[in-house]
Design a protein that fits this description.
Length: 817
């Protein structure tokens, strides 16, 4: 099939697909959507059944079932039933949290649907790419990710990055005309473009011939391959849980052995086995994956309020660890709402008309996306200039590249041809025939405006004898005889100064990587207090000349980088990543490598398709202030996740060892398996709301790069602090002839310990000072405490959980401890 589409004429391809250059009718689209299905690879949304299955197959729930089964076969039907009820409650809580998290993430993903311009019923329309069907006519522009396999109908300087399909790193030139050479393989089909490949340059019109699973990329899991990245915190917490599990397993085996050899006959082996299983469930932070997911999802929903959509959930934790944030200044610190401030034209010709000579302005419609410069030029045109524009026609446009660093347009007026070059003054001036006097005057004008923070665009124009298409533009792109300058004002965002102050408060260092000149960058940096010495600004050309050691020093010590290319941005971020955790905001085609290289990559919603795909977070509004709010939210997420770890493992480890060692000195179980499993449920219950807890501002003032070794040591330290109090419970109540008194007293004390630790460990400052705990956390703690204190006094507690009614003397001892 590839061979047919690659080797057949446009007419034959359109005929086979039963379409035309006018596009499909709505009726045809409807029929083909039914026939071929949506243009997507296998849908991977998680169903409620998959979430439930995952909860039930949790090893801790399996352990619950095994213990319940042992109770059942030993005819302890009441205990088996209660245990199953506890298991069901545990599963329901976990299922609800995870399912809600998945629904929230699906909601966020709905904001990120990719769109494409398609030509249907002879009219252009923007649709979601998943609505494409074979026979659709689509328009592709630089930066787009090709949404389906297509045959090209028209091309203009079209180059495609096919590396993810063919492995070839160099972009491929694509043409719509057939060549004499027959195509036999995917990699040499110059008239075809494939789903998942990237439009690097130019634009094209194409007809879709394969969608979804039928595309060349259909055998790959997704259009753009993604790796599920776990954050450092998630990895660390999982490792910590595994260490605890290993300690628990080893300790239980040892104690089980001791009980078998030294206490044989004094205690039922089955009872002790049930006790060991329940103890294992209690000791492990079984709700950790759910709590982490819930904290991250809450963070993602909060970021949505700051107009940030999270693609990779673990990137929220990574946000909290960011020490350096790199970004362009345009649109981040400035409004990117350019206005024409001033004009300079050596020959007093209408330089604005030349600036406006481009297809995107001449064919201006609501669907056209104009750059900031083009919008400003279009707004500045008066009626006479707009009329003058239509005397010209565009023959060819050669877009901006980082090799050429300017755009070139070939235009025609009557029978005369003109070449117009636009770009930064230092790249345009060398292309012109200028006297030393002219160059001095022009440079003085540029410097004056750039020192005010304005951006200057230079234009060079010359008449040429004939049009050219296939010849290299470099042959003609020189010896211009007419030059003009346009100064554009780009005011600072009202939030820029607030953002810089917030960055200081959060301990985040801001670095500006800009394509603008030194003077423009310095003017903005000086206004914001980022830099007060122009000599400290690093020019991209100087960075390129430096050796590796010097580059590391420049990247580390300097704040502002001017006239840098995307490749240099990638180098700077890669060098910084060796020492720091780095965030990056980019939106261009060539920003994909630095976006991938950074710890957290961000792109705006209007960014090139390839940049959006590479980013971890999509910003609906480009704003440094929002980025910093996101970093703050990331830190809150880390802090609240660590609260759960510290609280649960501290309590669990202390209780585990207290119960294990006390069991060696008595002839009965210090707590019944059923009591232990209920204890695990009731003490974890308030912690499901830990993500709602406010965080002390002092804890947000520096990047969080928690070492799990430190967290582990702190956790075990708090466990050791608590351990003597557990032994006090044992010492006070072990001699009571009614075994249930010790079991009940230990159950109440342990529960209260855990609730006290929630309020003690939730903040590093004295717990009665602000910020106060969230109402949800306080409410659930109060509810759980009520159950713990009331249940032992009820018939239900006596019958189901074998609790003994505590005396007021017993309660006084418990509260004293």
């Amino acid at each position: 099939e590839i061979a047919f589409y690659a080797n057949s004429s446009i007419e034959d391809v359109l005929k086979k697909l039963e379409t035309s250059e006018k596009g499909l009718s709505q009726q045809q689209v409807k029929e083909r959507l039914t026939q071929y299905g949506p243009n997507q690879l296998e849908k991977r949304s998680v169903t409620w059944f998959q979430v439930l299955k995952k909860q039930i197959l949790n090893p801790f729930i399996v352990l619950f079932i095994v213990i319940a089964a042992v109770y059942f076969f030993t005819h302890e039907y009441t205990e088996a039933t209660i245990l199953l009820i506890i298991m069901v409650l545990n599963t329901i809580i976990g299922f609800y949290q995870e399912y809600q998290s998945n629904r929230a993430m699906e909601l966020l993903k709905s904001y990120l649907k990719t769109q494409i311009v398609t030509h249907r019923d002879d009219t252009d329309d923007t649709i979601e790419t998943m609505q494409l069907v074979p026979g659709d006519i689509i328009k592709l522009n630089a930066g787009d990710i090709v949404p389906a396999d297509c045959r090209l109908l028209a091309t203009e300087n079209c180059t495609i990055d096919e590396s993810m399909l063919t492995g070839e790193s160099m972009p491929v030139k694509k043409l719509h005309e057939l060549s004499d050479k027959k195509v036999s393989a995917v990699y040499n089909a110059y008239t075809l473009v494939y789903a998942g490949t990237v439009m690097m340059d130019g634009n094209a019109t194409a007809v879709v011939f394969a969608t979804g699973q039928k595309t060349e990329m259909g055998s790959i899991a997704e259009l753009v391959t993604k790796t599920i990245v776990k954050s450092a915190l998630t990895k660390g917490t999982t490792q910590l849980a595994e260490i605890v599990f290993a300690l628990v397993a080893i300790s239980l085996v040892i104690v089980l052995g001791v009980n078998i050899f030294f206490k044989s006959g004094k205690m039922s082996f089955v009872d002790f086995l049930l006790f060991a299983g329940a103890l294992a469930i209690t000791a492990i932070p079984s709700a950790l994956p759910v709590v982490i997911t819930f904290c991250l999802t809450k963070g993602a929903m909060t970021l949505r309020q700051h107009k940030m959509i999270v693609k990779r959930l673990s990137s929220i934790e990574d946000l909290g660890s960011i020490e350096i944030f790199c970004s362009d200044k345009t649109g981040t610190l400035t409004e990117n709402a350019l206005t024409v401030q001033d004009l300079y034209d050596i020959k007093d010709q209408d330089i604005l008309v030349y600036a406006a000579l481009m297809k995107s302005i001449l064919a201006s419609t609501k669907k056209n996306i104009l750059s900031g410069f083009d919008q400003a030029v279009e707004k500045a045109l008066d009626d006479t200039q707009k009329k003058a524009l239509h005397e010209y026609s565009i023959i060819e446009e050669f877009p901006f590249t980082y090799e050429r660093y300017h755009t070139v347009s070939l235009v025609q007026k009557n029978k005369e041809y003109f070449l117009i070059s636009k770009g930064p003054s230092e790249y345009i001036f060398p292309l012109c025939k200028l006297s030393k006097h002219d160059i001095t005057k022009l440079n003085t004008w540029v410097k004056k405006h750039e020192e005010q923070g304005n951006r200057v665009l230079a234009l060079a124009v010359k008449k040429i004898e004939h049009a050219f298409k296939d010849e290299k533009v470099e042959k003609y792109d020189k010896d211009y005889d007419h030059i003009g300058l346009i100064s554009f004002a780009d005011p600072l965002k009202p939030t820029a100064e607030v953002a810089i102050k917030k960055a200081e408060a959060l301990g985040v260092k801001i670095k500006i990587l800009s394509g603008d000149s030194v003077d423009v960058c310095f003017a903005i940096a000086q206004q914001l207090g980022l830099e007060d010495n122009k000599e400290n600004i690093v020019l991209g050309a100087d960075f390129a000349k430096a050796d590796e050691r010097h580059k590391k020093s420049l990247a580390d010590k300097h704040t502002i980088f001017a006239r840098v290319t995307p490749q240099q941005k990638y180098e700077i971020i890669t060098l910084l990543q060796e020492k720091y955790s780095v965030g990056y905001l980019g939106d261009g085609i060539n920003d994909a490598p630095p976006l991938k290289s950074a710890q957290v990559g961000m792109a705006v919603n209007s960014a090139a398709g390839v940049a959006r795909e590479a980013a971890d977070i999509i910003m609906l509004e480009k704003s440094l202030h929002n980025v910093l709010l996101g970093i703050e939210e990331g830190r809150k997420t880390i802090i609240n996740t660590l609260k759960y770890i510290k609280i649960t493992i501290s309590c669990n480890i202390a209780l585990f060892y207290a119960l294990v060692f006390s069991s060696l000195f008595i002839d009965f179980l210090p707590m019944l398996p059923l009591q232990l499993t209920f204890l695990d449920l009731i003490t974890d219950f308030p912690l499901i709301s830990i993500s709602t807890d406010p965080v002390n501002n002092q804890e947000l003032q520096k990047p969080l790069r928690y070492s799990m070794k430190e967290v582990g040591l702190a956790t075990f330290f708090f466990g050791l602090v608590r351990l003597p109090f557990d032994f006090l419970v044992f010492m006070f109540f072990k001699s009571n002839p009614n075994h249930a008194v010790l079991q009940t007293s230990w159950f109440i004390t342990t529960s209260l310990f855990q609730f006290v630790l929630i309020f003690s460990l939730r903040t590093k400052i004295f717990f009665l000072r602000k910020p106060y705990p969230s109402l949800t956390l306080s409410g659930l703690c109060l509810f759980a405490t009520s159950i713990v204190l009331i249940l032992p006094f009820t018939n239900l507690g006596h019958t189901l959980f074998s609790f003994a009614r505590p005396s007021w003397h017993d309660m006084a001892i418990i509260f004293m401890i």
